[in-house]
Write a structure and sequence with these properties.
Blueprint lengths: L1 E2 L2 E2 L3 E4 L2 E6 L8 E5 L2 H9 L6 H22 L3 H13 L4 H14 L5 H40 L5 E5 L16 H8 L4 E6 L7 H10 L4 E4 L4 H6 L5 E4 L3 E2 L5 E4 L2 H10 L4 E4 L23 H4 E6 L2 E6 L12 E4 L6 E4 L2 E3 L3 H7 L2 H11 L1
Parallel strand pairs: 6-7, 6-9, 7-8, 9-12, 12-16
Antiparallel strand pairs: 1-2, 3-4, 4-5, 10-11, 11-15, 13-14, 16-17
């Protein structure tokens, strides 16, 4: 998508240099970071220089390329397996990370020499990144149909969409998941307005608002607790969020607070959709009860970061000696979700429908059972 009129992806290559947008100081500062080694990739994932399940996966793909480079320098294949474990442990909830690392390991093993392994890892990382962007573009193609239907029912009046966290191009490689249908709607001339949850404690909603501002899409930032009130007043037509991991029955883990939005939407008969690429499905989970929920540092709750007199600073907002619990995600049960918007279409929330839309999942499940 565009930043100040210039097209950017959230991760890209300049030759063989790996560049990312460092998201820690957005929306106040737009900064580009180069990742030169495995340790920098792990730090970028852990400390949220990059964030969002698809982008974390793409970044980990290039992390495995850098791991092979390290293994070649040290002349030790054990480094590849160890690096894979370190990457997977960097963020436990986002399943795209694990999927990408395992895909890389499988491909890297086809190489007979370090040189071959390195070339395979680089090409695979690039392919995963390009595929991720294309998946999100297709999510937009299918998701925009929902917005169009509402627009037609409202006789071309503005469609009000509520989203939570940032599931835009910054969280993916391009287009985004939840935002892809919004960008497509704008392109199709549909009148839209987006309610943007601030999304405490990391304030990812400010990234969404920054994205929408760059694309000149009408939007309004709201406090996290405002969504239910807007729904009661008839000011929300549709909810779309992303996801970090989805079980085979459709239970979806996403940024903390998503579950409460889904409850409010259900109570007010507002359709609540989850947008995701196929890599976000966890084929090892029948339901969401065992999705690992990351608990992050309490200081993300106790402190808040912002711009003060042209300087980005952190401010303590809680009593200094109070303790805090910082759960990064919650799980929205499938019963509250109207459908899953994927790169292959919109599907219902049950294992049969998911496997019908993604027949390749059946093969993977059978292979896992046989191993």
């Amino acid at each position: 998508m565009k930043v100040n009129g210039k097209h950017f992806r959230s991760i890209w290559l300049e030759g063989k240099k790996i560049k990312v947008i460092d998201q820690r100081n957005l929306p106040h500062k737009f900064e580009i970071e180069e990742l030169t080694n495995l340790e920098e990739v792990i730090t970028a994932i852990k400390d949220m220089h990059v964030r969002g399940a698809p982008l974390i996966g793409a970044t980990a793909g290039f992390g495995m390329y850098l791991a092979v480079k390290k293994a070649e320098e040290k002349k030790s294949e054990e480094i590849i397996e160890e690096s894979a474990k370190q990457l997977i442990q960097a963020r436990p909830t986002a399943v795209d990370l694990k999927w990408t690392v395992e895909k890389q390991l499988k491909e890297i093993k086809k190489g007979n020499s370090f040189k071959e392994k390195k070339e395979i890892a680089f090409k695979t990382a690039k392919k995963i990144t390009d595929n991720s962007a294309e998946q999100c573009r297709k999510i937009g193609e299918f998701g925009v149909k929902l917005i169009k239907e509402i627009s037609e029912k409202k006789k071309a009046k503005t469609v009000n969409i509520l989203t939570h966290c940032n599931a835009g191009w910054l969280a993916c490689v391009d287009f985004g998941t939840a935002t892809a249908p919004i960008y497509k709607a704008q392109k199709n001339g549909i009148k839209i307005h987006v309610w943007v949850d601030e999304t405490r404690p990391r304030l990812q909603g400010m990234l969404t608002s920054w994205e929408l501002m760059q694309q000149k899409i009408p939007h309004t930032i709201i406090a996290d607790n405002t969504g239910g009130h807007l729904m009661q007043k008839g000011l929300v037509d549709l909810c779309i969020t992303g996801a970090d991991r989805v079980a085979l029955n459709g239970d979806a883990a996403n940024k903390i607070g998503t579950y409460l939005k889904a409850l409010a939407a259900k109570d007010n008969e507002i359709p609540f959709y989850v947008a995701l690429p196929s890599s976000t499905f966890d084929l090892n989970l029948e339901n969401g009860k065992n999705i690992p929920i990351e608990e992050r540092n309490e200081n993300e709750i106790k402190f808040i970061k912002g711009l003060n007199k042209e300087k980005i600073t952190e401010v303590l907002i809680a009593p200094e000696k109070s303790s805090a619990r910082n759960f990064g995600f919650d799980v929205t049960p499938a019963r509250l979700i109207a459908g899953l918007i994927t790169e292959k279409g919109i599907c219902k929330l049950d294992k049969k429908s998911i496997l019908k839309l993604f027949p390749e999942f059946k093969k993977r499940l059978i292979n896992d059972l046989n191993e």
